[in-house]
Amino acid sequence: MIVSELVNRYVQLKHKLVSSRVGLREFRRSRDFVPVAQEIAANVARILSHCMRVGSDFDTMNVAGLVDEYAKDASDFND
């Protein structure tokens, strides 16, 4: 949940900096979002490399795969 909130806030801040002319949903669907998603994914991967996953089956999930999917803009991190 904490990682999800970090991702969400990161997207909101980048939206304001990069493309405030369009709404957040449109920004998420735009080409401008692709490098942002890659940046977020790289930062999340770096953070998670210093963490121990516990509880709620999170410790058995393929988190690297989730981060990779996010970088490709294939899904929302919550998905």
Task: Give the secondary structure arrangement, pairings included.
Elements lengths: L1 H17 L5 H6 L3 H16 L14 H9 L8
Q: What's the story with the biggest beta sheet? A: none
Could you say which overall geometry the principal axes of the C-alpha atoms support? elongated
Low-confidence stretches: none
Mean pLDDT: 80
Which radius of gyration do the C-alpha atoms yield? 13 Å
Give the number of domains: 1
Number of DSSP strands?
0
Q: How much β-strand is present in the residues?
A: under 5%
Instruction: Give the termini distance in whole angstroms.
Output: 12 Å
The number of helical elements comes to 4
Query: Which structural class best describes the helix and strand composition?
Result: mainly alpha
What's the quick description here?
With 79 residues, this protein is mainly alpha-helical. It has one domain (2-71). Helices cover 61% and strands 0% of the residues.
Describe the structure.
The protein has one domain. The model has no long low-confidence stretch (mean pLDDT 80). It is elongated, with a radius of gyration of 13 Å. With 79 residues, it is mostly helical.
Labels describing this entry:
single chain, 79 residues, mainly alpha, 4 helices
